[in-house]
Design a protein that fits this description.
mainly alpha; two-stranded parallel sheet; two-stranded antiparallel ribbon; 21 helices
């Protein structure tokens, strides 16, 4: 039995600095040396293995087990969810239905203030929930330009709007991963995010209108802005609180779009706002039946995810459930039962394979039902889009796997706890700074998933030492990271390419940075207040 130590060098701060070396190596590789993410993560993983073995004294078998657990978790369930979600989205595009979806949204109102609420906020959240990985930023920014928005403004608005949905992208994968790497129950983490992030989400629709048309715009469009804010946040909070993160963006985005559509039947702003007094482009009109059919893949997805999320379905796969035999679990050799934490807990590490009740399986069923109900698609289209999905995502998936391996080794070697011990020295003030760690992580990696993988265990280790709620600090890591997506280099590059400003990313960054920092400050202060109250 190997026993962890959090201070192998006899000095808490020195041990923490050495434990942080792999993360620093990764960040330097990305930012200073401008290495590809896979290369930087590979070098950082080697550094993590060396620190774990040579400094913290971790046995090679335990390090191998921790790395293997990270790799297996990256494949199942994470990669499974991501590939299935993007495959469904690509099939909707290939079938031509996505063009009808875009036209149906653009035709609800000619007022650009209403359009930005519908497209960048509500529709963007829906796309974030269904696909994530930059898809909503690219599509919404390009769509706004098609509707007459200036390119820089279109990109900036879509980036700011994404802050309301970025924590729950790709069927809630950032929250799911955050829960897995920290051992926090996913529903507890979801509820902590409701308390922390929902006040900001309520304000984002008002912020978007203010950016576009100032206080006058808010006075003229407050009914629509209020409806979008309340409906979106209400649905998102309800789904997170009772079901978890999987449908938080999809349900909220759909609900907000329907609410604005219904409101538009009885109310329109007296003055139609267009940037610089321009005229609205012609929108292709479609019948209600065509629109309903076009949206059907996502209705089907929502239905399957809802069933997979309800407690009665989950109970079927519990140890005493009717389908418990379909849940397979394997203890990780060299790790489970072979490591004792510094607090005296024997590590029990296992990888579970759940082919039926996995979220990815729900999405796969939505893919198949959508395919068989779409006459325009052929079998060759189905496999072609899967191949293209894998071709587009393999680097992102490999990066996630490398980061998970690094994070697991840091966690089980005692490195994360070592950093947490040192950071706990700031005491009760740490919750004020916790979101900043997440902001830095996403700014540099471009991913809330990678950020939670890297820094989630660190937040938990610190929470244990200062007596804070671990779920709240991991939520702070997630929320702070979400505000950084507004200006992360990857997001800026995606937005610039979508609006035809490649090479002029600095203009978008300058237009967006104050909003990102302002939202971060809000989250920091509110997180500190919650840490005092809870």
């Amino acid at each position: 039995m190997w026993i962890q130590t959090t201070d192998p060098l006899g000095n808490a701060w020195l041990s923490a600095i050495v434990a942080a070396v792999p993360i620093v190596v990764f960040l330097i590789g990305l930012v200073v040396l401008k290495l590809r993410g896979i290369v930087a993560a590979s070098i950082a993983l080697v550094a993590e293995v060396l620190v774990a073995l040579l400094v913290f004294g971790m046995p090679g078998t335990a390090a191998a087990g921790a790395g293997a657990l990270g790799l297996l978790t990256a494949v199942w369930p994470i990669a499974y969810i991501i590939v299935m979600a993007v495959w469904l989205y690509r099939l909707a595009v290939a079938s031509g239905r996505f063009e009808v979806i875009r036209a149906s949204i653009g035709g609800i109102s000619q007022d650009q203030r209403i359009q930005v609420l519908l497209i960048s906020f509500a529709f963007g959240a829906f796309l974030e929930g269904a696909a994530g990985f930059g898809v909503p930023i690219a599509i919404c920014a390009a769509l706004l330009v098609q509707l007459g928005f200036r390119p820089v403004k279109a990109a900036m608005l879509s980036l700011v709007a994404n802050a309301g949905a970025g924590a729950y992208g790709a069927i809630g994968i950032p929250v799911i991963v955050g829960a897995q790497v920290t051992g926090i129950d996913v529903l507890d983490l979801s509820r902590a995010l409701v308390l922390l992030l929902q006040p900001l989400t309520l304000l984002i629709p008002f912020l978007l209108v203010l950016i576009l048309d100032g206080w006058r715009g808010l006075r003229e469009t407050w009914p629509a802005t209020l409806v979008v804010s309340v409906v979106f946040s209400g649905i998102q909070a309800g789904v997170l609180w009772f079901l978890g993160p999987e449908l938080a963006d999809i349900g909220a985005g759909l609900g907000a779009m329907v609410a604005v559509f219904v409101l538009g039947r009885v109310w329109q702003p007296r003055r139609i706002f267009r940037e610089n007094g321009g005229t609205a482009p012609e929108i292709e009109r479609h019948s209600l039946r065509e629109i309903g059919v076009a949206w059907s893949p996502f209705y089907i997805l929502t239905a399957f995810i809802f069933v997979w999320s309800i407690p009665a379905f989950k109970a079927l796969f519990a140890p005493e459930g009717a389908l418990a035999a379909t849940v397979f679990s394997w203890a990780i050799p060299g790790l489970s039962g072979a490591v004792e934490t510094a607090s005296g807990t024997i590590v029990t590490a296992a990888w579970s394979f759940t082919p039926i009740n996995a979220t990815g399986t729900a999405i796969l069923l939505a893919v198949l039902v959508s395919f068989f109900t779409t006459p325009a698609l052929r079998v060759r289209d189905l496999w072609r889009e899967l191949r293209r999905t894998l071709g587009e995502l393999w680097q992102a998936l490999l990066l996630i796997a490398l980061i998970l391996m690094l994070a697991n080794i840091a966690n089980y070697s005692g490195g994360s706890a070592s950093m947490g011990t040192a950071l706990a020295a700031v005491g009760p003030l740490f919750p004020l700074l916790a979101p900043v760690i997440g902001w830095i992580g996403v700014f540099l990696t471009g991913s809330v998933v990678n950020n939670n993988t890297l820094f989630g265990p660190l937040q938990v280790a610190t929470a244990d030492r200062i007596g804070a709620d671990p779920a709240l600090l991991v939520a702070a890591n997630t929320a702070g990271g979400t505000t950084a997506k507004v200006i992360s280099p990857q997001s800026i590059a995606i937005a610039a390419g979508a609006v035809g400003l490649s090479g002029r990313e600095g203009e978008i960054l300058r237009a967006s940075i104050l909003y990102s920092l302002g939202m971060l400050v809000f989250i920091c202060v509110w997180n500190f207040a919650l840490s005092v109250m809870l």
